[in-house]
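Q: Here's a chain of 445 amino acids. Please give me its 3D structure as tokens.
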Amino acid sequence: MEYFKPIDPKVKETTGRFSCMYHDAIGIDVHAEVLVCCYQHNDTAGEVVTEEFKQFGTSISQLEAFAQWCWQRQPQIILMESTGVLWQSPYESLEAVGFGNERLALVNARDVKARKGHKTDKNDAQHLAELARLGAFKKSFVPSPLIRRTRLFARTYIKTREDLSREKNRYQKALTLLGSRARTVFSDVNGMTAKIILTAFLNEPVEKFERIVHTKSSRLKATPRQILDALRPIEHAEEIKLLRTKQAHIKMLESICNDQLNALRSLLSEHAGLLRRLQQIPGIKETTALLILAEIGPDLRSFPSNEKFCGWLGICPGNNESAGKRYSGRPAKGNRYLRSTLVEAANGIALSRKGYLWQRLQAFKERRGRNRAVGAVAHLLARIVYVLIKTGCEYVENLTAVLKQHRLRKLLKDMRAAKQVGLVATGNGVADIDTGEMTRFADRR
């Protein structure tokens, strides 16, 4: 039974002199169930371009036939769109028959759009083949097969952790709706001690629950009386069952997160040295280092410079200039998984209150606000990560007093502005030059 109506192979010759980078190229329009291919060959004289079209399905046998068809034509370059995750199976089938990264090019769909009003699968494949033959494309970063597998586990971990955070909030809200003010006596409803007490609250008789509260509450700020007063007994079995289900769901999600982290540790075990160097950076612990390496891998040859890497990541300002004027430039979308990981690490630095990176964050914060400061430090972390992976060097803490220098420059600027309006700083206050009136600094001891 034939599921896909094939496009009859058609050879078309176009005459005229052309300037091209590759004489042979294949453009592939990727869909969930269809691969439409266009092979173009330009003769050595550059006067005749021969085209051939072919359509394949996406089953295992069809992908094998597709890869063999491409291999028989031996193109110098193969170009395909990065359509979601649909590109991976065709890409891996081409790798299996011998095509390497130097002959495979993955491009962003927004960069290779065909003309409006002329969009068909066949025209899209032809357009991709022409761009490939002329060299008018920008290759996307494609990590190694190992890193492509680790990305699956890393992104599953990130998504599951987000689900876990949402479920914890729902659990706490359900407790409040049922009359129990758990958040008033527990700083973290899902903390170790709070979890033991709440489990006993839902599963044990009143007498045993009270004994557990008196035994475990020594580690809490709230007294046993306050805890018992905050947790209102739940009478309906359906409500108790609901809270038990939420507890079980939270436990299941925590187990999934641990499984994904263990899988990442196993897959990236051969890069233990690089993981150790990444953890030398303030704000980057083992989990963050695993997530960073799972997204980009140990090979950054695809990024010739630090600026290119940060631009691909989408963590630096974009360019927006017109008629000689520069406007606020929105960055590219980039890799949102790695970007969110670095932003989370920057937020951790904001809480550390020590070190060079914290001083940089404080200086940015006083100039532009907290959100921009966190983004700027995340950008700085990306640059540090690039250098550590690219050069293999160790992270060394910078001992420069960045915050002190920033505040000194700010103070000097304020003093110049004060002098312009007739104010001058004295030992313990500010004096008005015209009237001699003295304003002393407030004693904040």
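Q: Can you summarize the key feature?
A: Residues 145-177 form the longest helix (33 residues).
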